[in-house]
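Much of the work behind modern protein science is quiet bookkeeping, done one molecule at a time. The protein below has been through that process, and both of its lines are reproduced in full.
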Amino acid sequence: MEPANDMEAAGSTYAGFIGTLKWSVPLIAVLVFIIVLAIS
């Protein structure tokens, strides 16, 4: 079994998560802005 504290795998997972977050947060903000404009 792999050790529970595999820092290399944890760093890779964290980097992937932050990379996804960098794209998804602005995209969601733009979608919310468009929906608010459409409603008002």
Summary: The mean pLDDT is 90.
